[in-house]
Amino acid sequence: MVAVETLRVNNLMKSFGGLEAVKGISFSVQEGSIFGLIGPNGAGKTTTFNIIAGAERPTSGNVLLNGKDVTGLSSEKLYKLGLVRTFQLSHEYPQMTSLENLMVAASDQPGEKIFMNWLAPKTVASREKEVLERALDSLNFLGLSHVKDELAGNLSGGQKKLLELGRTMMTDAKLVLLDEPGAGVNPTLMLKIIEMIRRLNQERGYTFCIIEHDMDLIADLCEKIVVLAEGSILTEGSMTEVRANEKVIDAYFGGDLE
Ligand SMILES: Nc1ncnc2c1ncn2[C@@H]1O[C@H](COP(=O)(O)OP(=O)(O)OP(=O)(O)O)[C@@H](O)[C@H]1O
Ligand SMILES: [Mg+2]
Question: Is 72 left (phi over 0), alpha (psi -120 to 50) or beta?
């Protein structure tokens, strides 16, 4: 099978005033793969994701999604093109139930547009039913059915992380960017999150880009890893390759201890 490039970034740069957070980085992600972006704190990982996901404009460089230049498009437009992201800190609506949180994440919900209720009530009703079924299926897939009516604000940290994954399942997105899906998660839930990401990749065909500090998660899931430090790519390759690289060891342990 010919490898298809879902994502490519070319020579991305981003300055915040005098600070160069990203200094010309390029990499590509193959369709159907799980890609890891790692590096010490402040390396520029989230900034890179923000640029890819349309939350920041790069100072220069470009982003290609399925071969199409999408640099500077809004996150809403990118979402419609099949790209969705999660955040380093979970973004649930605490006063809504788990089920409602997933339902509001569905794209293009015609019920949101009031005139559609009036013009095409049947379309709205059948779409809402579809969204409900999809939300229930996602909760079931993630093992969260028992908390479907619980307010999201009352969920544990790990359950919030799973719910965040569930939000990505409410879209037809094929490329999912995860910013630290394992942050603050206990070891048991970490295994669950790893399993969910793997199953979403294998059974449902999602391509993932993952930022993560937990090297077990990265080693378990990612075929290809890019290591960033101080805004530049230090190296890339398999976990075995990057782990053996002295520059990587230096970047993590050579400077001030975190
Ligand atoms: N909006 C902003 N304005 C000014 N500086 C910023 C902004 N966003 C990020 N930075 C700076 O850019 C650099 C890279 O930050 P970034 O958040 O991309 O790092 P990171 O690799 O995600 O780190 P972490 O592992 O701690 O999440 C840091 O020095 C950060 O302080
Ligand atoms: Mg970050």
Answer: left
**What are the structural domains, with CATH classification, of the chain?**
5-92+172-253 (3.40.50.300), 93-154 (no CATH)
How far is residue 183's CA from residue 187's CA, in Å, rounded to a whole number? 11
* Interatomic CA distance for residues 74 and 55, integer angstroms: 7
How far apart CA 191 and CA 187 sit, in angstroms, is 6
Ligand 1 atom closest to the Cα of residue 228 is: 21
CA of 54 to the centre of ligand 1 (A): 16
Is 44 in a helix, a strand, or coil? coil
- What does DSSP assign to residue 152? G
Residue nearest to atom 27 of ligand 1 (CA): 41
How many angstroms separate the alpha carbon of residue 210 from the centre of ligand 2?
11
Q: Is the shortest distance between the CB of 41 and ligand 1 below 6 Å?
A: yes
Question: Is the C-beta atom of 42 inside 6 A of ligand 1?
Answer: yes
Q: What is the pLDDT of residues 14-35, one digit of tens each?
A: 999 999 999 999 999 999 999 9
d(CA 221, CA 168): 18
Give the mean model confidence (pLDDT) for residues 35-63: 96
Does the structure show a pLDDT above 80 at 110?
A: no
Gap from CA of 95 to ligand 1 centroid (Å): 30
Structural contact between residues 31 and 3, judged by C-beta atoms closer than 8 angstroms: yes
Q: Name the nearest CA neighbour of 242 among 217, 219, 208.
A: 219
Model pTM score: 0.88
Residue 258 beta carbon below 6 angstroms from any ligand 1 atom: no
14 contact partners, CB below 8 Å, separation of at least 6: 20, 21, 22, 44, 47, 51, 56, 58, 59
